[in-house]
Design brief:
Length: about 475
């Protein structure tokens, strides 16, 4: 495809990267804090909601993968149309958590269940289409690295939304201002995704292949003879896929903890009496943007050494940093603690940004191995999500259970003596330090089993269709 056409498609992809980051980062950053500290949800309801979320979160990706790879509805006809028609519903679902259903315990619990389920449904449907766009815009490794770099630039802008929300809402102290700001975040994110839906054509775009109707019909007939369960099993039984998804599960486990609990932990371990609230707001913004900056400026390093080595180095770094922070520094210096959290979130975010590349290579490898005419990208990403998505629920469930076991509920209500409160803070500090150590060790083992070291060569690039 021409450079101009490719750049236009990359721009459309990055528009959704920006919009999705604005919405998703804001949602993850605030929903746990809002339900725990403002709506005062009971722990039993919180765990029940997360359990239901875990189940739905795991099964909806394979379900949507079947729809996007096989169904002939308008909304699933192309990746871009999936994004175009679902964007308004994602914006609406994003707003649901910020308007309380009621004050009774069961009503708050139902509110969380509805909020998580609806939001994840829309986010997953769009996210799956966006991931497939990444794979299908180009099969060239350098193009994918460039697209990763551009997407990170967009993501850096999106993460700054937290700084804006923190400023307008005074760190949730002015909740009405928070609700108004959230509305404009939803509107902006929706608009960007609609732009993607109108412009993000790929070489597999059905509308762009009208001249290949007869060939396409033959391919569809052949594909229909291979059931979805067989294709899924072929993916799940692949050694490289298993190594990747287990590593990705631990990555998501860690990333979810950082997204959901950074603000809560910092409220107690980095009090405003030692670090001004304005500085903390800027710090929250940097936790999302620094990882993107590392990818933007470090792309040549990734291109030289390959994503495998870079991801492996990130695991080693977070193991060492967590070990040093807990055993040699401690929690007495809030500024160093902020630096540690910043390093942890940045390297976790940066390495996570590269995870689309091995998953795309797995999709390409599957297409070559089984001689498929078209990549089954949605099926690959759906199978990945089937294993990885439960981490979104298991991680907060684990942390909330541990914190409440040691008295976090009483700490919130100011019912603990000073020594007891310090004990809970010590537990928080231990969690912050040992999350990267334990998960990094596990990831180092599983990632060593991933053996794909290259993308499919240029001869597998699909020729650009006409009239796109």
């Amino acid at each position: 495809m021409s450079t101009t056409t490719l750049n236009r498609r990359m721009l459309a992809y990055c528009a959704s990267s920006l919009g999705m980051t604005m919405i998703h980062h804001t949602f993850n950053f605030y929903y746990v804090k809002v339900f725990l500290n403002r709506y005062h949800i009971q722990e039993s309801w919180f765990h029940f909601a997360q359990f239901l979320f875990l189940i739905w979160n795991a099964i909806n990706d394979p379900l949507f993968a079947v729809l996007q790879d096989n169904a002939k509805f308008t909304i699933t006809r192309t990746r871009r149309e999936s994004i175009l028609y679902t964007a308004p519903f994602l914006a609406i679902s994003f707003m649901i958590p910020w308007f309380q259903f009621g004050t009774s315990d069961w009503m708050v619990g139902v509110h969380l269940i509805v909020a998580l389920s609806l939001y994840d449904t829309m986010y997953t449907f769009i996210g799956l289409a966006l991931c497939c766009l990444f794979t299908e815009i180009s099969t060239d490794q350098q193009d994918r690295l460039r697209l990763t770099r551009y997407a990170q630039m967009a993501g850096m802008l999106g993460h700054n939304t937290i700084l804006f929300v923190e400023y307008t809402s005074d760190s949730l102290q002015n909740f009405v201002a928070f609700q108004i700001t959230a509305f404009f975040v939803a509107l902006a994110g929706m608009s960007l995704m609609i732009y993607t839906g109108l412009n993000a054509h790929t070489v597999w775009d059905i509308k762009a292949q009208k001249e290949h109707v007869e060939e396409k019909a033959v391919e569809e007939e052949s594909a229909s003879q291979e059931p979805y369960w067989l294709k899924t099993w072929q993916i799940l039984s692949e050694k490289n896929f298993l190594a990747f998804v287990i590593t990705n599960f631990f990555q998501e486990f860690h990333k979810t903890f950082l997204s959901n609990f950074t603000a809560i932990v910092c409220d107690y371990l980095i009090p405003s009496t030692q670090v001004p609230t304005a500085v903390r707001s800027i710090f929250y913004s940097f936790t999302g943007t620094l990882g993107g900056m590392m990818i933007v400026f470090g792309a040549p390093v990734v291109g030289h050494f390959g994503y495998f080595r870079i991801i492996r180095c990130s695991f080693i770094l977070k193991i060492c940093s967590g070990f040093i922070m807990f055993f040699f520094i401690g929690r007495s210096n809030p500024w160093i603690l902020m630096l540690f959290i910043l390093i942890d979130t940045s390297f976790t975010g940066a390495s996570n940004s590269l995870f689309n590349m091995p998953l795309s290579d797995i999709s390409d490898h599957d297409r070559e191995k089984y001689g498929r005419k078209h990549p089954i990208s949605s099926t690959v990403y759906g199978a990945n999500a089937l294993v990885v998505k439960p981490a979104n629920s298991l991680s907060p469930m684990l942390v909330v259970a541990v914190l409440n076991h040691f008295g976090y509920e009483q700490l919130k209500d100011g019912l603990l003596s000073f020594p007891e409160a310090e004990g809970v803070k010590d537990v928080m500090f231990a969690i912050v330090c040992f999350y990267p150590v334990v998960l990094g060790l596990l990831q180092s083992v599983t990632w060593s089993q991933f053996t794909i070291r290259r993308s499919i060569s240029l001869e597998y690039r699909v020729p650009e269709p006409a009239h796109v």
